[in-house]
Amino acid sequence: MAEPKENPLMEKIVSLCKRRGFIFQSSEIYGGINGFWDYGPLGAELKRNVKELWWHAMTRQRDDVAGLEATIIMSPQIWKASGHVDTFSDPMCDCLLTKKRFRADQIEPQSGIVYSWGGAVKLGKVEEKIHKANDNPPDNQIETIRANANRVFVRLQRDVEQNENQNSKTIAIEVLRLIRADKSAASEESFSVLVAPGKPPESARKIASQFYAQRGVEVTHLQLEQIEKVENSTRFNPENGALLTEPRPFNLMFKTYVGPVESEEGIAYLRPETAQAIFAQFKNVLETSRQRVPFGIAQVGKAFRNEVTPRNFTFRSREFEQMELEFFIKPDEVIEAIYGSVASAAETGRADLPVGQDAPQRVPTTPQPNWGWQAWHQYWVEERVRFYEGIGLSRETLGFHHQTPAELAHYARACTDILFKFPFSKKDEQGNVAGDELEGIAARSDFDLSQHQRFSGKPMGVFDEELRAAWGKLPEEKQKELWKRYYDNRKNYLTKTAKPDETPEQIQKQATADADGLTKGQYIPHVIEPSAGVDRLILALIANAYSEATKTDDKGKSETTVTIKFHPRVAPIKAGVMPLLKNKPELVKKAQAVRDLLRPWMNVFYDDGGSIGRRYARQDEAGTPFCVTIDFDTLGEKPELLDTVTIRYRDDGRQERLKISELLDFLLSKIR
Ligand code: GAP
Questions:
Q1: Would residue 109 be called left, alpha or beta, if left means φ above 0 and alpha means ψ between -120 and 50 degrees?
Q2: For labelling, which of 111, 335, 356, 419 has a CA lying 20 to 30 Å from the CA of 40?
């Protein structure tokens, strides 16, 4: 499971994570299980801090977001309504030789020469069969087969179709029949191998022989049918050149059974996202939290996807955690009816602008009642970037990808991915790194609530008195225009998701009812969804914080030390507390008192083992931002320094003296 050799930084990170107890391979003592990771003592603290910070920023710091903690296994109807049962799949293909599975859309395009075979036969068996089929075969028949072994099928076929000699024809028919009936004698399966430039063509033959050997033709005579030059093909295994199967959809949901019987009725799924529980509980939360649209529901929790190719350490795992917010907003038609017009996106912050450009526009604005979906979408992109900045990921380490219409889910109006420049992120031709997805912020229209309304039969819409009152005051022309727009949107949605037995008339009737509802103050809220992965964020934070320094001493001996420069907010240990010497009871007693003073407020680590320099180095590697040392001055050796400690700053080694009475406030001001 080691990272590829060509990524030394990733290798160092993976090794540090294991060595210092951030991340371990799951089930390591049994050889591991691909795509599953455990968080060790430091990793567990780091993860907890990240989730706490997200929860704090998204719920407790806001009036307009409520929290939810739903179950992982839910009614399978939820996944039918959401579309996951039918469409949550990746295109997958297998290597025809090794059976290794690939995601078809992630295969690197390759160029080279493709050798294609039409099949293979085991010559010895063929001879045997010819003898058996005819006690006295013409010698030249065997000779021809032997000489032309690679084309034996073609020749036999030709004999069957064209040979004037009835005897040869009969032999050929019989031999073909026998060969086909006996898997150990022949395989007619076609197979191809791509040979990259600079590689010997024999390698293709070797791979093909292995392929046919697996089919029982141990000593193969290959029927080479074609040699062809190809460019940028994704049809071959990048590791051995063997042909891949055609891509086919592979559903990513893990299936299980609820109840004692493993039957169709008991099938359930481990949730592939936390979002759907939020939609399913929308009405309950709305009614119990006294929220009104616009408002959001936040959830942090496990998600499971049977990824075809888990990779890049924890980046693509099969079990991971998400931090998702579903922020429900009024449809634009409602905003227009109430406020006359919808605010433009330019009125909000622009997180996607490069640093230094158009700076004033990047200042986030306070949400306004007349914001439509575009403004809310921009706002949430900016909010999320600010969150990342607040935990140490500067804008320079991030990137943005605005999904193109072809990439967007059919119900989504926009999706901006926030990227992080991971050590494994690819460079373009100019050497620029765009990054890989950390979080997606999607404008999901009213698709999800509409689907759950249709599948459950329970109303998911809301009533808005302000809309009802405003509608009556609109000029007729405006009413007609808004009615028509809402009707068109609903019809569009209903048409795209129609069941096979639904007629256009039924769809029109439903769309009319929905648009009529609007005139009475009813609508289905739209959604903006910032959806972040905890594990990807942990990996980004570690990669971002990883720093090495090499020092050479007077004797010319050099040593490389690692410092993990976590932002104090996320650091697993906030302060190391150290008595200068462990064999001086007064120092130990004082140090333990300092530890106990800090402990209720933050995670501290008491360390009295080894030289103070080694202890600092250990904390540097754990990412601890501060070390507090209790020395003889603390005990009053210099009376003016009584009850003071040394604070050592991780990132520059600076030290300063601080009163113990001021220590807690000092540390709290840094870690909050
Ligand atoms: N509800 C929307 C949703 O789930 P997504 O883009 O599939 O959207 C959201 O996932 C986030 O979850 C991603 O941006 C990523 O951070 C994280 N994520 C998705 N699949 C993951 C995987 N296999 N391993 C780790 N994190 C993953």
A1: beta
A2: 419
Residues 443, 373 contacting (CB under 8 angstroms): yes
Per-residue pLDDT tens over the stretch 76-117: 999 999 999 999 999 999 999 999 999 999 898 999 999 998
Distance (angstroms) between ligand 1 centre and the Cα of 87 equals 16
Q: What would the two tokens of residue 351 be? A: 């997180």
- 89 to each of 109, 253, 505, how far by Cα in Å? 22, 8, 32
Burial of 393 (0-12, 13-18, 19+ CB in 10 A): buried
Neighbours of 418 (CB within 10 A): 24
Residue 409 is classified by DSSP as -
- Which pair of tokens denotes residue 578? 């150290």
Give residues with Cβ within 8 angstroms of 652, minimum separation 6.
none
What distance in angstroms lies between residue 299's CA and the mean position of ligand 1's atoms?
14
Cβ neighbours of 553 (radius 10 Å): 8
* 206-248 pLDDT per residue, tens: 999 999 989 888 766 777 888 999 999 999 999 999 999 999 9
| CA 274 to ligand 1: nearest atom | 1
3-state secondary structure 598-611: HCCCCCEEECCCCC
Residues sharing a CB contact under 8 Å with residue 537, sequence separation 6 or more, in sequence order: 50, 438
Q: Which of 431, 75, 129, 455 is nearest to 269 (CA)?
A: 75
Q: What are phi and psi of 278, to 5 degrees?
A: -65, -45
| 572 secondary structure, DSSP code | S
Residue 356's pLDDT is 46
What rounded mean pLDDT belongs to the chain? 91
Nearest-CA residue for atom 16 of ligand 1: 533
Looking at the predicted structure, is the pLDDT value of residue 344 above 90?
Answer: no
Residue from 308, 424, 536, 541 whose mutation best tests the ligand 1 pocket (most atoms within 8 A of CB): 536
pLDDT of 129:
64
What is the Cα–Cα distance from 416 to 343, expressed in whole angstroms? Answer: 20
**Do 254 and 35 form a contact (C-beta atoms < 8 A)?**
no
CA pair distance 276, 301, nearest whole angstrom: 12
Q: Identify the helix (H) or strand (E) that includes residue 298.
A: strand 295-304
Residue 386 CA to residue 358 CA, distance in Å, equals 17
**What pLDDT score was predicted for residue 349?**
57
Can you tell me the mean pLDDT for 113-129?
A: 79
Task: Kindly state if the Cβ of 490 falls inside 6 Å of ligand 1.
Answer: no
In angstroms, the CA 341 to CA 372 distance is: 9
Beta strand 546-552 with 575-579: parallel, antiparallel or unpaired? Answer: unpaired
Q: Is the pTM for the entire model greater than 0.70?
A: yes
Residue 279 burial (10 A CB sphere; 0-12, 13-18, 19+): buried
| Three-state SS annotation for 6-65 | CCHHHHHHHHHHHHCCCEEECCHHHCCCCCCEEECHHHHHHHHHHHHHHHHHHHHCCCCE
Q: How many angstroms is it from 419 CA to the middle of ligand 1?
A: 12
Site to substitute for ligand 1 among 79, 384, 437, most atoms within 8 A of C-beta: 437
Tell me the average pLDDT across 435-450.
Answer: 97
Which of 209-218, 239-248, 311-320, 394-403 has the weakest average pLDDT? 209-218
Assigned token pair, 61? 């710091």
Least confident range of 126-130, 253-257, 467-471, 477-481: 126-130
Tokens of 642: 């009584």
Atom of ligand 1 nearest to the CA of 324: 1
